Amino acid sequence: MHIDLYERIWMWAASVLIVLFLGAILFTAGAQAIQPPSHVETIDPTAIANHPEFGHPAIVRGTDGSITVPVVSAMFAFSPDPIEVPAHVPVTFRITSMDVIHGFQVVGTNANAMAIPGYISQFTVTFPKAGEYPIACNEYCGLMHHMMVGKIVVK
Ligand code: CUA
């Protein structure tokens, strides 16, 4: 079969790019241990009510001033709500779900994670300025999914 020279060049170029991108994923996953912010820590979703951290999720201030916010998502709300945190301080969100997969997106920022039953998703974000940030569930989770919103108040 005859393949035109330019077509061959582009086929090779596309193949090299695919190998390069897949290689970059494997390299960061393996050598630099970069992974999605969930699937690291597990939790029993049926025992959340009695869990020391997530039973009555409360905002914790560490000795270094950092803030940790445990969040439980369940149809169709986040707890705690509203979440009050200071600006200019690293805030670590630890998110899990009691029932189905929910989303936790802080609107207007790049903070965005899935809340997966059985797992704890964790990420840290520093809010640059005071204000109110809505939280949206961006995973379809049931009939009232569109009503599942929360609020972060940054002071
Ligand atoms: Cu929770 Cu959609």
Q: What would a concise description of this structure say?
A:
This protein has one helix and eleven strands.
List ligands, each type once.
Answer: dinuclear copper ion
Unreliable sequence segments: none
SSE arrangement, N to C: HEEEEEEEEEEE
Give a count of the beta strands, DSSP E runs of length 2 or more. 11
| Percentage of residues assigned to helices | 10-25%
Terminal Cα separation, in Å? 68 Å
Secondary structure category: alpha+beta
Tally of alpha and pi helices = 1
Mean of the pLDDT scores? 90
Largest sheet: 6 strands, mixed
Overall 3D form:
elongated
Radius of gyration: 20 Å
Portion in beta strands: 35-45%
What is the strand and helix layout of this fold?
Blueprint: H1 5-30, E1 41-42, E2 60-61, E3 67-74, E4 77-79, E5 83-85, E6 90-97, E7 102-106, E8 112-115, E9 119-126, E10 131-136, E11 149-154
The site of dinuclear copper ion has 8 residues, from loops.
Summarize this structure as a short list of keywords or feature phrases.
155 residues; binds dinuclear copper ion
Structure description:
The protein has 155 residues and is of the alpha+beta class. The mean pLDDT is 90. The chain has one helix at 5-30, and strands spanning 41-42, 60-61, 67-74, 77-79, 83-85, 90-97, 102-106, 112-115, 119-126, 131-136, 149-154. Strands 1, 2, 3, 4, 6 and 9 form a six-stranded mixed sheet that branches. It has a five-stranded mixed sheet with strand order 5-11-10-7-8, with no helix packed on it. Strand 2 (60-61) and strand 3 form a beta hairpin. It starts with a helix and ends with a strand. Bound molecules: dinuclear copper ion (CUA). Residues 76, 102, 137, 139-141, 145, 148 line the site of dinuclear copper ion.
